[in-house]
Amino acid sequence: MIKFVELYNNEGTAVDLTGWSFTQGFDYTFPAITMQPNTYLVISLDSVAMQNAFGVAARQWTNGALSNGGEDIELVDGSGAVVDYVNYDDGFPWTQMADGAGNSLALCDVNADNTMASNWLPESNDAGL
User: Fold this and answer.
1) pLDDT single digits (tens) 37-66
2) Which end of the chain is more exposed for a tag (fewer CB within 10 A), N or C?
3) Which DSSP symbol is given to 62?
């Protein structure tokens, strides 16, 4: 199973991620990198496996792992201010289809409130390996 988080820049301008970091769920601090509008960026537990399985280039986090049972994921900017936060789970109201070696969860609408389980659905393809 390949664990990963995908970021999407739905802003109309580029976002400088330099010094931003994930502080809950796993550890990763962004180097000097800018996300252009309408682009994705993937951070994975194993960037080589991500490339081999899906043909997607990913950055690799440095410590930690995503729990199959749910947990907090927090993204902060360079000053430590929370930019985004999700507390996912594998029990109601969250789907159990993403529990373990199953489908990935995807935010249905990038402009939706990502703190609400109803805005997340399992991907149609099983990503478990």
Assistant:
1) 999 999 999 999 999 988 999 999 988 888
2) C
3) S
Q: Is the pLDDT of residue 121 over 70?
A: yes
The residue-averaged pLDDT of 27-44 equals 94
Distances (CA, A) of 22 to 32, 64, 100, 102: 15, 10, 22, 24
Whole-prediction pTM value? 0.83
Instruction: Count Cβ atoms below 10 Å from residue 116 Cβ, excluding itself.
Output: 11
Strand-strand pairing, 26-29 and 103-107: unpaired
Sign of the Cα torsion 32, 3, 68, 108 reads positive
